[in-house]
Amino acid sequence: MSKALKIIVGLIIVAVVVWGGYTLLKGPSEPVSTEPIKIGATLALSGNLAYLGEIEKNGLILAINEINSAGGINGRKLILIAEDNQGDAKNAVTNIIKLLDINNVDIVFSAFTHITNAVKNLVAEKKKIMIYASTVKDIARENELFFRDYFDAEDNGRAIAKLVNKNGYKTVKFLTEVSDQCALYEKALTEEAQKLNITVVQKESYLTTEKDLRTPLLKLKGSGFDAIVMCTWRHESILMKQLKELGMINIPTFHWVAPFLPAADTSDMRQLFAENKSITTWYGFGEKTSKEKQAQFIKKYTDKYGSKPSPDAAYIYDDIYILANALKNCSSVNSIDSQCAAKALMKTDYSGAGGKLTFDSNRASNREVIAITVIDGVWQEVPID
Known about the structure:
Blueprint: H1 3-26, E1 37-43, H2 50-69, E2 78-84, H3 89-102, E3 107-111, H4 113-125, E4 129-133, H5 138-142, E5 146-148, H6 153-166, E6 171-177, H7 180-195, E7 199-206, H8 214-220, E8 227-231, H9 236-245, E9 253-256, H10 267-276, E10 279-283, H11 292-305, H12 311-327, H13 338-346, E11 350-352, E12 355-359, E13 365-366, E14 369-375, E15 378-382
Parallel strand pairs: 1-2, 1-3, 3-4, 4-5, 6-7, 6-8, 8-9, 9-10
Antiparallel strand pairs: 10-14, 11-12, 12-13, 14-15
Helix pairs in contact: 2-12, 3-4, 6-7, 12-13
């Protein structure tokens, strides 16, 4: 062996020894986990509420795929385990027991008040973060790990009073179903109306099981008022047809999420809303939007699924992104620190597909209320103030 070669071999040996010593002093490298972060969701994927459950699932998948394509969260991929509750609370309980005890999910998603109320104690026992979609804020108020992201009954009530005032009306009648959501809506509407010197001269109510609204509508018919305010989202398809039938279609009406149900958003129904010049509060975005992030989301969703999304898909899509941001500093190689994640979620100030999102001190979302009306057959945004 030549002298030069001996020197080279010696240097290599020294380098190996030095590196080995450094490694021993440094200790083992931080283990890299391939364990995914499990997102569990109980959704109405069949039954009469499936039109919402499917688009919520689609929104979850769209966001999860994007985040995973960008490297996941600290190298950990997100996976979705979605269970079908068929819109039934008992089924949702079965879903959650499976998700928590068998699948050992890290995060829970739920939708609808009756579903979330049914599962909340099970989720609380496991000390998991839960994000849910409901107009009711109380569930979030009860638990520091629960977050509500949806439109708000009280915000909509205040917005309706502003819309009535903006259109120059000062005397209104009120038609409402008997429900907790509409009671919250009515309270906020009444308080804001008083501030704006709007008088509610008559109120008629009916049970949510009612199939015919002609009796309460006829009680409202007459003179001495400018418009009718409605909390009738379950019955819009019945309401508008019977307004026409009773010769009341020319009375100005103001609604809460009028086209929320598929039966209330057919071409025939849009013609009735247009004839009446109805204005309704809404959430997220209208069918036509000039906002870039909403337009981008609508295009991505439509390209992937072949249909346009409702704002529910955008809200839950945003939820995955704010969750990912919260977990960046709150997840180790194989666990989630729920307390840490909850504190991070409380600091959310996010502008996404569903608009701006923050949470109040009770972990209820602050989402913008918008107003829409039918113009040329399309639900388009109109100013509230």
